[in-house]
Amino acid sequence: MSGTLVLVRHGQSDWNLKNLFTGWRDPDLTELGVEEAKTGGKALADTGIKFDIAFTSALTRAQRTCQFVLDAVGQSDLETIRNQALNERDYGDLSGLNKDDARAKWGEEQVHIWRRSYDIAPPGGESLRDTGARVWPYYLTDILPRVLSGQKVLVAAHGNSLRALVMVLDRLTREEILKLNLATGVPMVYTLNADSSVASKVVLGDMSGAH
């Protein structure tokens, strides 16, 4: 029995627009972010999909994106589980800082390492591996069993929490995942085999705007 897993990164947030490290801070969506979420929802609605359950993080930008998607597919009242296991990577001392200011303080190379290495965390924060260490168990215990039972599951979350999932689903290496950027508001539709491997993947939109 094959199920469907849909991953959507939240629409542009106010801090994305201002070029700030966001992490676990909780800015809202911009007007563009709202439109991105609605556009992603419409793309899903056009496929005729109906979900059995939705998962999102403890942060507003992901929760609102999730709701806009559910509104678009005509399932505004669908059961939605919120859990901080799906939160964005915690940027620690970088949170709230402008990325250019961070480069001025710590140097271009050091900030690049924090942003783009797999297992080196910024001060007080998480690496991508650390993020995966909380995302992967939650996926295995709470999300995957529903998909394998044949359900259609929506996950609206964040760039790095979703990269951790995509790394597993697409069987990417550490080097490959570091090059992957996910566009805001663009749904990725996975069909899984009974052994949890990917039978098919369809991206409903343009990934060229990924950042």
From TrEMBL:
<dbReference type="GO" id="GO:0006094">
    <property type="term" value="P:gluconeogenesis"/>
</dbReference>
<feature type="binding site">
    <location>
        <position position="99"/>
    </location>
    <ligand>
        <name>substrate</name>
    </ligand>
</feature>
<feature type="active site" description="Proton donor/acceptor">
    <location>
        <position position="88"/>
    </location>
</feature>
<dbReference type="InterPro" id="IPR005952">
    <property type="entry name" value="Phosphogly_mut1"/>
</dbReference>
<dbReference type="InterPro" id="IPR029033">
    <property type="entry name" value="His_PPase_superfam"/>
</dbReference>
<feature type="active site" description="Tele-phosphohistidine intermediate">
    <location>
        <position position="10"/>
    </location>
</feature>
<dbReference type="InterPro" id="IPR013078">
    <property type="entry name" value="His_Pase_superF_clade-1"/>
</dbReference>
<keyword id="KW-0413">Isomerase</keyword>
<feature type="binding site">
    <location>
        <begin position="88"/>
        <end position="91"/>
    </location>
    <ligand>
        <name>substrate</name>
    </ligand>
</feature>
<protein>
    <recommendedName>
        <fullName>2,3-bisphosphoglycerate-dependent phosphoglycerate mutase</fullName>
        <ecNumber>5.4.2.11</ecNumber>
    </recommendedName>
</protein>
<comment type="similarity">
    <text>Belongs to the phosphoglycerate mutase family. BPG-dependent PGAM subfamily.</text>
</comment>
<dbReference type="InterPro" id="IPR001345">
    <property type="entry name" value="PG/BPGM_mutase_AS"/>
</dbReference>
<feature type="binding site">
    <location>
        <begin position="9"/>
        <end position="16"/>
    </location>
    <ligand>
        <name>substrate</name>
    </ligand>
</feature>
<feature type="binding site">
    <location>
        <begin position="159"/>
        <end position="160"/>
    </location>
    <ligand>
        <name>substrate</name>
    </ligand>
</feature>
<feature type="binding site">
    <location>
        <begin position="22"/>
        <end position="23"/>
    </location>
    <ligand>
        <name>substrate</name>
    </ligand>
</feature>
<keyword id="KW-0324">Glycolysis</keyword>
<dbReference type="Pfam" id="PF00300">
    <property type="entry name" value="His_Phos_1"/>
</dbReference>
<feature type="site" description="Transition state stabilizer">
    <location>
        <position position="158"/>
    </location>
</feature>
<comment type="function">
    <text>Catalyzes the interconversion of 2-phosphoglycerate and 3-phosphoglycerate.</text>
</comment>
<keyword id="KW-0312">Gluconeogenesis</keyword>
<feature type="binding site">
    <location>
        <position position="61"/>
    </location>
    <ligand>
        <name>substrate</name>
    </ligand>
</feature>
<dbReference type="GO" id="GO:0004619">
    <property type="term" value="F:phosphoglycerate mutase activity"/>
</dbReference>
<comment type="subunit">
    <text>Homodimer.</text>
</comment>
<feature type="binding site">
    <location>
        <begin position="115"/>
        <end position="116"/>
    </location>
    <ligand>
        <name>substrate</name>
    </ligand>
</feature>
<comment type="pathway">
    <text>Carbohydrate degradation; glycolysis; pyruvate from D-glyceraldehyde 3-phosphate: step 3/5.</text>
</comment>
<dbReference type="GO" id="GO:0006096">
    <property type="term" value="P:glycolytic process"/>
</dbReference>
